[in-house]
Each structure stands twice: as C-alpha cells, then as structure tokens.
Amino acid sequence: MVRRRDGVVAVTGASGRLGARLALRLAAEGAGQRLILRDPDRAPALPSGKGLPEAEVAVVPEYGDGEAMRRALDGVRTLFLVSAREGAGRVAQHRSAIEAAAAAGVERVVYTSFVGAAPDAVFTFARDHGHTEDLLRASGLRWTLLRDNLYHHALTMFVGADGVIRGPAGTGRVASVSHDDVADCATAVLLDERANAHDQVAYELTGPDAITLGEAAATLAELTGRPIRYEPETVEEAYASRAGYDVGPQVVEGWVTSYTAIAAGALEHVSGDVARLVGRPARSFADWLDDYPDQWRHLVPSA
Known about the structure:
Elements: E1 9-12, H1 17-28, E2 33-37, E3 56-59, H2 66-72, E4 78-81, H3 90-104, E5 108-114, H4 124-139, E6 142-148, H5 152-157, E7 164-167, E8 173-174, H6 179-191, E9 201-205, E10 211-212, H7 213-224, E11 229-232, H8 235-241, H9 249-263, H10 273-278, H11 285-291
Parallel strand pairs: 1-2, 1-4, 2-3, 4-5, 5-6, 6-9, 7-11
Antiparallel strand pairs: 8-10
Pfam family, one: NAD_binding_10
InterPro entries: NAD(P)-bd_dom, NAD(P)-bd_dom_sf, NmrA-type_oxidoreductase
C-alpha cells in the first residue's frame, strides 16, 4: 500500500472511461480520494474493506459552478482534472475549475491535455488544451500535463453505419493510446512518493506505433468479419457530411480538424513516456482490440 504523500486525491470525471479507471487504481493502492461527479449514482464501484479507505463523493454540476467546485475541493491537495466536454465554453470551464482549485488551497493539478496542445494547433480541441495549459502555468499551482493522443476507442467510433471511416486524414498516421495506459500513467504520477518528481512536466502519452486510418480499418475488418474501409474526404466534403449533427459549429470543426491534424502529421509522433512511467510498453491498437472485444462489438454484423 502506498504512502499518500499528497493526502486525498480529487478525481474529476470519475464516472467516465478514464476517471473510473483511475479511481479503481487509486482505490486498489489504498489512496484516499474524492470523486467529483455530476450524478452521484454514477460513481464507480470501488474495492473496499481490508483497510482500504472509502472514497468520498462530491457533486459538481459543471466546472463553471466555481463555488460548488471550491467546496468539492476543500481539504484536497491534489486534483486530477479531466478536460471538460468539447464546446464553445470549454476553456472558460477549465479556468473556473483552476481558479476554484487555487481558492480551495489545492497545491497540485494533474491535467489531461492533448498531444501538440498549443493555441495555434491544427486540431481545434488541442487549442483549448493549449490555452488551459497556459492557465495552469499562470496559476501558481504545481502542475503536470498528461498530453494524450487520440484514444484507441475513438478509432472504433470513427466507423460509420456503412462500415466506412470518412475524413480528410489522407495517409497520415495516429499514435493512438488506450484509456488503461493513461490511467496507469496518471496513477504513477499521482502516487509517486518522490516529492515534486513530476512538477511542471508534460508527458506525451501515445501507443507504441502510429497507424493510418486505412490500417485501422483493415484491422477492424479482420476482427469483425465485415468490410470496413477508410475513404478520404476533402475538407469541404467533411464539413458537408457532418452538417446535419446538432452539436454546434465548434464541435463540428473539432471533428473535422481531428482528421486534418492526422493528415498534417500532428498525431504521428510515438513517445516512450508510457513505458517510462509504468515500466512496460504501451498497448497497441491491435492488442487493445484483443483485450476489449466489447468495445468494438457494435461493429459486428447482427446475427
């Protein structure tokens, strides 16, 4: 069991794919934690007994509710901040959360950013992360950045109902990463007993190789037994094919520029940071598919 150098860890997004995985790992290590959620009924079931601390639960409707966030962080020294949902007010939400953390006396923030985060990134959602990173640098808090690539799971969701991945990615490559690897890295960073070992450090979390969307489609086709292929679009075609979704122009732009970022080579770099943090290689897309058949079962033709 770990010695909890930074006391209770607050985990935001604790009902999500990443937050729930992290909460399970922290619980197994005996770390005290406060789960911050919109809906307390969606809190993950965590191991208990045998001296394991029971997780606290705090309800925060949204990061923009600064007072609720401040109360939820009272007495917390370390905050794991999962990025807010994509949209026009995302950076403002992050600013509110960071200001609430500082007001509550939080000392350290570990933030889920994105590879290539910068105000001028091709991928517009990565621009949000770039602005948020700047907010953290100016906050006076200790911080660590986990710059994740696209998740393996996202590649399965790129497949349309007709078995086609469409987008202006060209022959670019993406070094996608698993939620499990990011959760393992976050656990290593949060529970490292070396004081300040990860302060003011950015880690790039990727898979062990970079693949094209055509290669991803071929792997999925082999697994599912159905034709799945990648079909390049122009940027204009990409915007037109997504125009019917009621998500707002900022989200549509993010969807399209996720592909143009791949085409530009912004997501192809393979980092060794996962291995450095957890002592084993990152999981490839193919390995992840083998481990999680339930995550691509929606692609299998109905019997």
